[in-house]
Amino acid sequence: MINVLAAIETGHMQTLVAAWLHLTLSFMVWLLIGALAVPIGEAVGLSDGQRVIAVALPLLSGAFLRIIAGWASDRFGAKRTAMVILLCEWLATVYGSIGLRSFADVLVLGVLLGSGGASFAVTLPLASVAYPTVHRGLAMGLVATGNAGAVLVAFIGPWVSARWGWPAMFTLMTGAVLATLVFFTMVVPSDRQTQRASMNQWGTGVATLLGDPMMARLAFIYAVTFGGFVGLCSVLPMFFHDLYAFDLVAAGGMTALSALVGSLIRPVGGYWADRWGGIRVLEVVCPALAATALGLASLPPVGWALFLLIVGITLMGVGNGAVFQLVGVAMSKQIGLASGLIGAVGALGGFLFPVSLGILGTVSGWYGSGFLLFGSAAAAAGIMVFHMARREYVLHRISH
Predict the structure, then answer these.
(1) Could you list the residue range(s) of the whole structural domain that residue 240 is in?
(2) Fewer beta carbons under 10 A from the terminal one: N or C of the chain?
(3) CA 39 to chain CA centroid, nearest Å
(4) Rounded CA gap, 224 and 319, in Å?
């Protein structure tokens, strides 16, 4: 603990706090429809298929917006890009607070809420440049505990909805996002003097990153670890409500419990990766995650399901921290762009998880098939990690 506190003091703590708050509120905005899918579906008259699309759409929108935010971060600066993201989130919550009358309204809202997913492309680079290289894994892991926004929205959303109606949750978030924007603007130092990448330089950087095998591998692994985390957090309220017959508040509480562990453990993953190397951490995480997903595929009794979900989300949190420790070290010169591209693939994985769960469940009649597919992806990521560990040039590239 003393070593961790000492490491935190080596950088700009105000930026660390502001980046964490930005990500926490953004994560809440991003997953709002997931937390309120049942009452919104009942109010608007959505079918099961439409609910799945509504839950997954912000994740898809966020995937594309992360790329744009990553470019804007490198081109115009992370601070100004982060402020624009918060403004977009504020507009989304205002739109939701007015009320939704049709599936088309829900789709528009889903696209707007995707702006919350873009936060990763600016908050993690802010944390990275605010700290020396030796502590970047920890700093980025601490900011990434903003994933706890999934806990807050899963717990608070159903509770507010049950008492005052689901539009009240959007109204509450409108004020919270505006307050975060003011605080962020005040405490984060200006980065206007930072040298910006031109459009040509950015295009060359994208081409270079896309051609980097390390980039492709990390993106796939992150699609499994982060995509699994955000996808699960989006569908768990419906999962507990539809399959285990829990009421909305109880389903939200169980979702919050599962997400809490995965959020808090992420900086531990970054710290372990700083100490032992991200590859070594992922060598343990990926096979264990595959085994956990296969256990969930059997749709066990609720007690075992909750236990396996907590274990699985914990593994995802550790894996997320390890992946971005590797990004911070191996791609430090293009951290904004790399974070945006890898984060986009991760968000795309989050989009595919609920969609596959819904489609495969409908077609096969067995909702465990989605977990089986995810377990196969985790196993493939494990094979990839073991291959990376045995390539000497990779180990040399990320050595401390």
Answers:
(1) 2-397
(2) N
(3) 24
(4) 9
Spatial distance between the Cα atoms of 185 and 183, rounded to a whole number of angstroms: 5
DSSP 305-325: HHHHHHHHHHHHHHHHHHHHH
Contact (CB, 8 A) for 59 and 237: no
Task: Give the residue among 227, 286, 237 at the shortest CA–CA distance from 258.
Answer: 237
CATH code for position 342? 1.20.1250.20
Straight-line distance from the first to the last Cα atom of the chain, in angstroms, rounded to the nearest whole number: 21
Tokens 């494990």 map to which residue?
A: 382
Contact of 102 with 26, CB cutoff 8 Å: no
Measured CA to CA, the distance from residue 330 to residue 397 in angstroms comes to 7
Total domain count for the chain?
1
Distance in angstroms (rounded) separating the CA atoms of residues 19 and 140: 10
DSSP state, 146? G
Q: How far is CA 148 from the centre of its chain?
A: 10
Structure tokens at 28: 């809440």
38's tokens: 């049942």
The model carries a pTM of 0.78
| pLDDT tens-place values along the chain, 400 residues long | 446 566 665 666 788 888 999 999 999 999 999 889 889 988 899 887 788 888 889 988 988 888 888 778 777 888 889 999 999 999 999 999 987 889 999 999 999 999 998 888 788 778 777 777 666 667 777 787 787 788 889 889 989 998 999 999 999 999 999 999 999 999 888 765 555 555 555 556 666 666 677 778 888 898 898 888 888 888 888 878 877 888 878 888 888 887 777 777 766 776 777 777 778 888 899 999 999 999 988 888 988 988 898 899 889 988 887 887 777 666 656 666 676 677 778 878 888 877 777 666 666 666 778 888 889 999 999 998 888 776 644 444 544 4
Say if CB 69 and CB 122 are below 8 A apart.
Answer: yes
Alpha helices in the chain (DSSP H): 2-8, 13-30, 32-35, 37-44, 48-76, 78-98, 103-113, 120-129, 136-144, 149-164, 166-187, 199-210, 213-244, 248-276, 278-297, 302-330, 335-364, 368-389, 392-397
Q: Do residues 262 and 292 make contact, with C-beta atoms less than 8 angstroms apart?
A: no
